[in-house]
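Translate sequence into structure tokens.
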Amino acid sequence: MSKKVREILLISTPYDAWVMEEDCRLSEAINNEYKGLNLSHPPRLNWVSSADAALAELNNKHFDLVIIMPRVADVKVSATAEKIRAKGS
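Result follows.
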């Protein structure tokens, strides 16, 4: 594997974050998949609820993957994705 995902940033409403963790057990599913593939370091999931908070987090920390849920009030997905891409280059 040439690129490892160690840090994930999730931009979502509090409800979406809760549903993914409580109903889907997202963190647990990620850990189980990594163990099943004999990978030793599953990624950490970081959550924010707004585009501004996401951009602030991106200033402070490197993320290998950013997931944007479409129902966040202040997030226009394509515009936020462009800002994130610009920070990465």
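Note: The longest strand covers residues 7-11.
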